[in-house]
Amino acid sequence: MNSDRPGAQAFAAAADAVRAAVFRSDLVVASVPAPQGLAPHALALSADVRPGDHGDSPYGTGRLILLHDPSEPDAWAGAWRIVAFAQAPLEPEIGTDPLLADVTWSWLVDALDSREAPYHSASGTATKILSKGFGGLAAEGDGAQIELRASWTPQGGFRTHIEAWAELVCMLAGLPPGSEDIAVFGARRPT
User: Fold this and answer.
1) Cα–Cα distance between 153 and 47 in angstroms, integer?
2) Do the strands 80-90 and 61-68 form a parallel or antiparallel pair, or are they unpaired?
3) DSSP-derived secondary structure letter, 79
4) CB neighbours of 115 closer than 8 A, spacing ≥ 6?
5) Is-contact 38 63, C-beta < 8 A?
6) What Pfam families does the record point to (predicted)?
């Protein structure tokens, strides 16, 4: 990162705060390459809930990008933006619940509020996906998953925002706060 670019020092301090975030032991969080062209400064993380031997998680996954643009884009209403994604498989019966999308969004808001992570200009979608296998995939049967795509403008406290996102990823995977080291008897989708 070129330290002469506007905002480089502020972004470096924010990146240090993100790296200081504390995650539960059954969530594996790693730095990944950030998409190019979204902002002058970007940092990206991936998260997998209780990943298997090959790195994939049958329980849930997430991605987060911290963006910084000192020109303060109008859509952000600030110099910072967090873009987050979380996805988890569900039992098909849960996937048909008409309130599932509303509950999913409320979990994000609750996670931010419980961590006292101030924000504004939030937006996003919660998508319920129902599937049925046919032909060679018929043995997989019915499936469902929930996806949340969200973005918001953080007002400081970057570490608390990252920890709130991690909490959301675990919540979608069926692991609420305090469930660390609790046995999970299988993924909610066929393997």
Assistant:
1) 21
2) antiparallel
3) S
4) 157, 160, 161, 163, 164, 167
5) no
6) DUF3000
Q: What are 151's two structure tokens?
A: 């973005």
Dihedral sign, CA of 30, 185, 108, 89? positive
CA atoms of 38 and 21, how far apart (whole Å): 23
The type of residue at 84 is A
What secondary structure letter does DSSP report for 34? P
Per-residue pLDDT of the chain (191 residues; tens, 9 = 90+): 445 576 899 999 999 999 999 899 889 999 999 999 999 999 999 999 987 666 667 889 999 999 999 999 999 999 999 999 999 998 888 888 889 999 999 999 999 999 999 999 999 999 999 998 899 988 888 889 999 999 999 998 899 999 999 999 999 998 877 766 665 544 444 43
Cα–Cα distance, 98 to 116 (Å, whole number): 29
Three-state DSSP at 163 gives: helix
The kind and range of the H/E element at 43 are: strand 41-49
Give me 174's structure tokens.
Answer: 């069926």
User: Where do the structural domains in the chain lie, given as residue ranges?
Assistant: 8-172
Contact call for residues 81 and 152 (beta carbons, < 8 A):
yes
The residue to which tokens 């979990």 are assigned: 107
* 153 torsion bin: left (phi>0), alpha (psi -120 to 50), beta (else): beta
